[in-house]
Amino acid sequence: MSGRVLVGYLPDERGDDALELARLVADADGSPLTVACIYPPPWPVPGPGRVDAEWLGHVRGYARSAVEQARDRLAGRMPAERVRTATGAHRGSGRGLIETAEREGADLIVIGSAPGGPAGRIVIGSTADQLLHGSPVPVLMAPRGYAAGPPARLSGLTVAHRPSRGSELGLAAALRLARRLDVPIRLLTLLERPSWLSGVLRGEEIMRRQREYAVRDLQAAAELLSGHAQVTTQVAEGDGIEGAVRNCHWPPGELLACMSGSHGPLRQVFLGGVSGKIVRAAPCPVALLPGTAGRAGGAA
Question: Which has the higher per-residue pLDDT, 179 or 134?
Fold first, then answer.
């Protein structure tokens, strides 16, 4: 068994999406699960004491009610002894989840998409933004509507790969996650076909060379994962990142892993420009892995 899974929960659609994904991850190896709800603290400038006390009592009660609702939703689907709850006050919900993960000993944080996006896609809100620019453990995000039709189990890990500083550590992180989930790995390189290339002399030759370089790099990366039972590689091409992602097959139960941005701090998640585009285009849950090898069960 790996470490504890922490899920950020609110009693709404995004909370249910995150809870369903967290349950699938925890079920893969029998990990314990903590359901957490972060509520806002009182204003820094005190108001009338009674008003502050009433407000604090209200938000605390809301948070306790939320996590108990999540526990009820898991009843009969996960053993009760593997589920516990946590609440806490913090001005930033993402930072509050990071602190809660540290207290709980969690090595994965799961959240849902921010509201307002299309079904099946991920929108990065303030909570995700804080997590994706500072979490010391992998962050998993469920797309909108995930709980409405979840897979029976997680079935594969697609790793968005391109050679960069620290990519070996990222591959090791992905390998640890795949072993935790007991799923095969697909190494995927996305090639963007710029719109201006069609008017360039020998444009097709340029793309052919890019494909050759990508295949070579993927083969080298696959050799680093030779200890894993099932590793495949794929190059997908399209008009921009979204077009390349759309040209891939995404079977039910697939999870997409992105490496942390190369310019972010080591030992923390950092959402780079390319990773951000992939997250927004992905039609499945996404895991963003920190910049170097982390604690047991998680990733680099």
Answer: 179
